[in-house]
Amino acid sequence: MRQTKRTRRIAEMEAKLDEARDAVDRLQDAVRDYARIQDTVEELERYYYSDWRKDYEADEAGKLPPDLKRGVLSEDALYDLLTDNKLAAADALYTFAQMLGQGQI
Predict the structure, then answer these.
(1) Would you list the DSSP string of 28-73?
(2) pLDDT, tens digit, for every residue of 65-102?
């Protein structure tokens, strides 16, 4: 088949359609996953501001089993997650507001 300007344009637009469809599908999945996990994030935040310090101190005092996974007790992991969660929401809101303002969505 001989390529004309029209067929090249159609092929280019087809590739762009496939790329955009894939990105939108991934975004929709990510937004659903992000929304679904917010109850868990809220539970972690309540833990951080209530029992975390006591658990951390118990770990420091050697009162926890040595084979217990304890990443949640690291000084930064939980705090960083809570901060990153808020920043991710703000970034998404800003990006979508920009797109709305520019008539992109």
Answers:
(1) HHHHHHHHHHHHHHHHHHHHHTTTHHHHHHHHHTT-S-TTS--GGG
(2) 999 999 999 989 999 999 999 999 999 999 999 998 88
Q: Give 20's contacts (C-beta < 8 A, 6+ positions apart).
A: none
Q: How far is CA 31 from CA 25, 64, 78, 92, 99, in A?
A: 10, 37, 21, 10, 16
Q: Between vectors from CA 14 to CA 27 and to CA 20, what angle results, nearest 5°?
A: 10
Q: What is the spatial distance between Cα 53 and Cα 75, in angstroms, rounded to a whole number? A: 10
DSSP state of 104: -
Q: What is the spatial distance between Cα 37 and Cα 55, in angstroms, rounded to a whole number?
A: 23
For 3-55, write each residue's pLDDT tens digit: 899 999 999 999 999 999 999 999 999 999 999 999 999 999 999 999 999 99
